[in-house]
Specification:
Layout: H1 3-17, H2 33-42, H3 47-58, H4 65-91, H5 151-159, H6 165-169, E1 175-178, E2 193-208, E3 213-222, E4 225-232, H7 237-244, E5 246-256, E6 259-263, E7 266-269, E8 280-283, H8 292-306, H9 316-321, H10 327-335, H11 340-371, H12 381-389, H13 397-410, E9 417-422, H14 428-440, E10 445-449, H15 453-467, E11 479-482, H16 488-500, E12 505-508, E13 522-527, H17 535-542, E14 549-554, H18 560-564, E15 571-575, E16 586-589, H19 595-607, E17 611-615, H20 630-641, E18 647-650, H21 656-667, E19 673-676, E20 689-695, H22 702-709, E21 720-724, H23 734-741, H24 745-761, H25 780-796, H26 806-817
Parallel strand pairs: 4-6, 9-14, 9-15, 10-12, 10-13, 11-12, 13-14, 16-21, 17-19, 17-20, 18-19, 20-21
Antiparallel strand pairs: 1-8, 2-3, 2-5, 3-4, 5-6, 5-7
Length: 825
């Protein structure tokens, strides 16, 4: 066993014997990190293991004793696993024995002769108020026009999405390191990030790890003391440091054998201007063949030359009313800030720009649809009331309000563009059915698109049942289902009848989008679980009609910040009221060892005549993912756990007719317990189900878990949702705890957006709005501010035709050019 691993085991054992009180080492386990890291590197431990140990032990003192135990056992398990893999690699004698990765290189190796080893030093300080040069600068100039950027660097920058000067200026740092605190060496303290200026007293290179790794060591001193500085695997630094003599170093102060040290600091020769040290230093995203120092130097020169000439698209009155700096200053400060205060102001300005330009495009899109003509569909009160009386239930107040909004849209003379959101079981489908009935009663056609065959089939049955009592408006043979598994001869008949107008309402999946599908007069497009479809797919369906009305529905509550941005072009209807008699679902998180408690609950509920779901994250067992799988667990549950009950299996790899058969048996209560994957997340309506048991629950997002929970509690029976993570460490998972704390879908949606960000929250990527670089859609205050000012400006000059809005019009077009596909949401 390697020395560093032995030491780790020794410290961990001592800590366990002391009941994890963080006193196995004087000053706490974090104090071993400096010396242990060096030994680990000499032992050739994988870099990911070294970083894992450092990250866990650095914050070890902040953990509770229970969490400390979990953390140490987790680290040790991972170290053991990697050690075993190392032994296996040794046995097979791999032909290439590369050294483990080392911390990020700081400067270019001398082999790259085309570029100087240090960025060219300027004789004067950066002046942020430089007068713009007289000549007109072209920001679309290719980056290879910059001196020193050859073919290799151009290719690397292209991989980063940088092809022009504008791209380069808008490649923002991913973080900033504050090295502005200059201290004498004699006043340094362990753990602080500082800058020191000193003289190189000595510099040498020695081999470690049997010659596989080079260590450059330098002694740097000033009048107050001396400091040992080390760089890993950068042997060319010895010559550079020797020539430099006087240097500036910036980094974290560490400790080795009782002496303060610096490992892999940023450094540069002492000059009048410091670019990499003694300031707030930008840290950029990188790719192969691009180093931090090189990119920082290129950006510094580019910002100096082009920054002052950047034109500001925001009207002066708007900018000054919210105290934002001019754009040229913001660009210069985001890259090379004078202070933390100026950096924050620059971030605020650039984030506001993104959200403001986003809102201007959203409002433009909304106005375009509002200005288009749409067919008028009346629904007299007498007629609609007679249809409501035929329903087997009464609409809630929220449903009635939403129906009124939809009726107003349909008779407005402009295409409806409405997002209908409501929790699982809130009754969105009946609103869609009535909207379809309003349209087809006047001879037009409606299409209802769902993301899965199971959901489409269920909507088909539901809509036939809801509309079956209205033969004067729509007959049973005028409602049809079109999905991928529909036999080809039936598809041909359906397509023919759609094109001739004989079919009034078609329910289907992506099959509706295929080119052969044509409508005689499509006037209403309904999209269910809209986040599962991309913008292009919704646009394709819409284009099959002439400015048809659009109703998109979601059971995932949309946080206000997203409603104002991603869905800002849509009118919003919310069904925030469940049908009367529904009880909230009781939710619990159990340890994996408590699984028998969950099984007992399932048995008790099934014995009462109810039904249960048991969900697994995988279809079949995987070597890569250590989680239970539905197929294997189904066999075990039937044989060992529930031998006297009727179980069914459902997953996405089954044939459509097999899925339908299983769901029919479950709906008819011939199956008591359904073992399934996430395929039941949407569209399975089983009123008799009262238990939702989710294993491997930590692998699902909040939106999914909330959807699962929505599959139960659809009657007046008390229902339960049991969440069991795959291991005890995940019990404190914040998604799982949020599920216990609230049944409110909007609260969970806000939490989910906060945890996962808009990309994952929205599911299928919502193209049509530019990827935001600095702004956060979760920043509701800034989103609302941008929306307010965009709305005011849009009311004054919707076409941005006024002279003082010409620059803004250009900026809006540039912002939307790359991503806009004609439909935002």
């Amino acid at each position: 066993m390697k020395t560093s691993i032995k030491k780790l085991r020794k410290f961990f054992r001592l800590e366990a014997e002391r009941d994890y009180d963080n006193k196995a080492v004087m000053g706490g386990l974090a104090n071993i990190l400096s010396s242990w890291e060096l030994e680990a590197r000499e032992d050739e431990l994988p870099e990911q293991i070294i970083q894992a140990v450092i990250s866990r032990l650095r914050d070890y003192h902040r953990l509770s004793e229970e969490s400390r135990e979990v953390a140490l056992k987790g680290i040790w398990k991972r170290v053991n696993k990697e050690s075993l893999q190392d032994k296996k690699r040794d046995k097979v004698n791999l032909p290439t024995d590369k050294p483990a990765p080392v911390p990020q290189q700081i400067s270019e190796p001398p082999a790259q002769k085309k570029e100087p080893s240090q960025p060219k030093q300027k004789k004067q300080q950066v002046e942020k108020t430089v007068t713009p040069p007289a000549e007109k600068l072209d920001f679309d100039t290719p980056v290879n026009s910059i001196k020193g950027i050859g073919e290799k660097k151009t290719a690397a920058l292209t991989r980063m999405g940088i092809s022009s000067i504008r791209d380069l200026l808008y490649t923002f740092p991913r973080r900033h390191d504050d090295y502005s605190k200059l201290k004498p060496i004699g006043s340094l303290w362990f753990g602080e990030e500082v800058t020191v200026i000193g003289t190189i007293d000595s510099v040498s290179t020695r081999s470690v790890r049997g010659g596989k790794m080079k260590l450059v060591e330098a002694m740097v001193s000033d009048k107050s003391g001396a400091l040992r500085v080390t760089w890993f695997n950068q042997p060319w630094l010895e010559g550079q440091l020797s020539r430099a003599k006087h240097v500036v170093l910036s980094g974290e102060i560490e400790q080795y054998l009782g002496r303060l040290t610096m490992n892999n600091p940023e450094w540069e020769p002492l000059s009048n201007e410091q670019l990499h040290t003694n300031r707030i230093v930008p840290v950029y995203p990188l790719t192969k063949d691009i180093t931090q120092k090189w990119l920082r130097g290129v950006l510094h020169d580019t910002v100096q030359k082009y920054g002052p000439s950047i034109e500001d698209p925001l009207p002066d009155q708007l900018r000054s009313s919210i105290s934002l700096p001019v754009l040229s200053t913001a660009i210069q400060e985001i890259h090379f800030p004078d202070s933390d205060q100026s950096l924050q102001k620059a971030k605020q300005r650039l984030a506001f720009d993104e959200l403001f330009l986003l809102q201007m495009g959203v409002l433009k899109q909304k106005k375009q649809w509002e200005n288009r003509p749409g067919q008028v569909f009346d629904s007299p009160d007498v007629w609609i009331n007679s249809r409501l009386e035929q329903l087997p239930f009464q609409l809630t107040k929220a449903q009635i309000k939403t129906l009124t909004q939809v009726r107003e849209d349909l008779c407005s003379g402009h295409p409806m563009n409405r997002l209908l959101q409501g929790d699982v079981g809130s009754g969105k489908t009946v609103i869609a059915a009535l909207a379809a009935l309003i349209v087809v009663r006047q001879g037009a056609q409606a299409a209802f698109m769902a993301p899965t065959s199971i959901l489409a089939e269920q909507h088909f049955q539901s809509l036939k049942k809801l509309l079956g009592n209205n033969p004067d408006e729509i007959k049973e043979n005028e409602i049809t289902l079109l999905i991928g598994s529909t036999p080809e001869d039936q598809k041909e008949q359906i397509r023919k009848k759609l094109s001739q107008g004989e079919i009034k309402l078609v329910i289907g999946t992506h099959a509706l989008l295929q080119e052969p599908v044509e409508f005689q007069n499509l006037q209403l497009a309904i999209v269910d679980e809209q986040h599962r479809f991309g913008v292009e797919q919704r646009g394709t369906l819409r284009q099959k009609g002439n400015n048809p009305h659009l109703l998109v529905m979601t059971a995932t509550p949309i946080p206000r910040s997203l409603a104002l941005t991603t869905f800002g072009d849509l009118e919003l209807s919310v069904i925030d009221e469940l049908p009367p008699g529904r009880l909230p679902v009781e939710t619990h998180v159990l340890f994996p060892r408590e699984i028998e408690r969950a099984y007992s609950l399932v048995r008790r509920q099934v014995d009462k005549g109810n039904q249960a779901f048991i969900i697994y994250p995988l279809v079949e067992e995987s070597e890569k993912i250590d989680e239970k799988a539905a197929v294997e667990e189904f066999s075990r549950l039937q044989k060992e756990i529930f031998p006297s009950y009727s179980l069914g299996l459902l997953h996405g790899q089954m044939r459509p007719d097999d899925k339908e058969s299983v769901m029919t048996l479950f709906r008819d209560k011939e199956i008591q317990i359904l073992v399934s994957t996430s395929v039941v997340e949407v569209g399975v309506d089983i009123p008799g189900a009262t238990v939702m048991l989710v294993e491997g629950a930590h692998r699902f997002g909040l939106a999914q878990l909330h959807q699962f929970r929505g599959r139960v509690g659809r009657s007046d029976q008390k229902s339960y949702c049991i969440l069991i993570p795959g291991n005890a460490e995940e019990i404190e998972n914040q998604r799982l705890q949020a599920m216990v704390e609230t049944n409110d879908g909007f609260v969970l949606a806000e939490k989910d957006l906060e945890i996962r960000g808009p990309g994952q929250f929205l599911g299928t990527r919502q193209s049509g709005y530019t990827e935001l670089k600095l702004a956060s859609i979760t920043d509701l205050k800034l989103v609302e501010q941008a929306r307010q000012h965009a709305s005011e400006l849009f009311r004054q000059d919707p076409e941005l035709s006024q002279e003082n809005h010409q620059k803004l019009a250009l900026a809006v077009n540039q912002f939307w050019t790359l991503k806009n596909s004609g439909d935002i949401s």
